[in-house]
Specification:
The protein is mostly helical. Helix content is about 60%, strand content about 5%. The chain has 18 helices and 6 strands.
Length: about 425
């Protein structure tokens, strides 16, 4: 019969059947096994989520391995290390003693190390005349040797799962981009269809995705988004086929080409008179109203660009080359943000008509800064536009509030 040894913890730490089971399993491991200690450590780092370990626990395990002098874990050389808490804290990047004790307990509970407590709870070793260790009390690294194969398999599984998660997120990003740009193109080019409902479905799908989703939630969102992309492509295909059917009937008609872009984002805004000639009656009425406001001297003056960028620093990341140095670059960045937040081109165009292009860009910068608190950026912008047309809204208080919040956040960070 093989003699097996089980040690009980010192002091008030209780003995559990799980500790007995773990020690017996280590005692029955194959003798003569060897494994490179840093390879095992990398596997533990890769699979740490499976054990519920924090970064501090990995730092403590790394420190324990530095006290083992050999590059390979080998039972013949003894696997017990016995550093003091002070030495261990220094090599674990100076963590406090209370944190050190807590993370050591987490490593023991995870079955990665074992305690070999002395009669008085101290860590030390007995050496012979040749300086070789005969008996040591401290932390036993045998579980790492015994579970090396298991840890390697877990690390591979975690790495494969992480790769699957990354690919699913990439696929969702591409599908989301496809749907967003197809909807924008259809709206801007006047394709027939209820694109407002399609855009609402797009926003709803993304709204159901949590802030920090897991792979299953991302896959479910991807399935919905792919279905929506298919529907969008079907609508556009019907539109293109209809245009092809009517194409031959107008071959001899005079081809009228509008040299002015329908998008207000690419060129400087034209005069209200020029825009009114091509707008429907309702929009012409709005243009006339805006002209009357200008004649009364009521248009909102654009704020200093420096003030806007201090109040809304996030908009700078969307400028050309990651910077904004004049108003034209701010308006270009606002177009990018408009598309990213799902604001329809028509909503932004109405904001430009009501506020002016510079102030509409400032409004988009403010919405971006508060996007975490706004459910629908498009609906919020339309509400600001209506209030601006009635003379009930000014950007000043919003900018001042954001400027205060930014300054307070900077003071807290400092």
């Amino acid at each position: 019969m093989q003699m097996r040894h089980v040690t009980t913890p010192f002091g008030r730490r209780p003995m559990t059947l799980a500790l007995v089971k773990g020690q017996l399993a280590i005692a029955e491991s194959h003798p003569g096994a060897r494994v490179e200690k840093w390879k095992v450590f990398r596997d533990v780092c890769e699979a740490r989520e499976r054990f519920g370990l924090q970064d501090r626990a990995l730092a403590v395990l790394d420190a324990l391995l530095t006290f083992y002098p050999e590059p390979q874990l080998d039972a013949e050389h003894g696997l017990v290390v016995f550093p003091s808490n002070a030495q261990l804290s220094i090599r674990a990047h100076g963590i406090t003693e209370s944190t050190l004790r807590r993370q050591l307990g987490a490593l023991v509970d995870a079955g990665l190390i074992q305690r070999r407590d002395s009669p008085n709870g101290k860590r030390y070793a007995y050496r012979n005349r040749d300086g070789e260790i005969e008996q040591a009390y401290g932390f036993d690294l045998s579980p790492l040797l015994a579970r090396a194969t298991e840890l390697a398999v877990l690390a591979q599984e975690v790495a494969a799962e992480r790769m699957r998660f990354r690919r699913v997120k990439e696929a969702l990003t591409i599908c989301r981009r496809d749907v967003r740009k197809l909807i924008t193109a259809a709206i801007e080019e006047g394709a027939s269809g209820n694109w407002g409902n399609v855009e609402a479905m797009y926003v709803g799908i993304l709204g159901r995705l949590p802030r920090y989703p897991d792979r299953t939630q991302v896959e479910a969102t991807l399935d919905e988004m792919e279905l929506l992309r298919g529907e969008v492509l079907n609508l556009l295909e019907i539109q293109l086929n209809t245009e092809n059917m009517h194409g031959n009937a107008i071959q001899n008609d005079r081809h009228i080409q509008n040299s002015k872009s329908e998008s207000i984002y690419e060129l400087e805004p034209s005069s209200e008179q020029e825009r009114g000639e091509s707008l429907p009656e309702e929009q012409q009425a709005k243009s006339v109203k805006h002209e009357e406001a200008k004649a009364r001297g009521e248009p909102i003056k654009s704020f200093p660009l420096g003030m806007v960028l201090r109040a809304c620093p996030q908009i700078v990341d969307y400028g050309p080359g990651g910077c904004i140095s004049h108003w034209r670059e701010l308006m270009t960045a606002a177009v990018v943000v408009r598309s990213m937040l799902g604001v329809s081109p028509s909503a932004y165009e109405e904001a430009c008509d009501a506020m002016g292009p510079e102030n509409a860009a400032v409004a988009m910068a403010c919405i971006l800064e508060r996007s975490n608190f706004i459910n629908s950026a498009g609906g919020y912008l339309r509400d600001l536009t209506r209030r601006s047309e009635r003379g009930e809204f000014s950007l000043g208080p919003m900018l001042v509030a954001l400027l205060k919040a930014t300054s307070e956040g900077a003071r807290r960070a400092g």
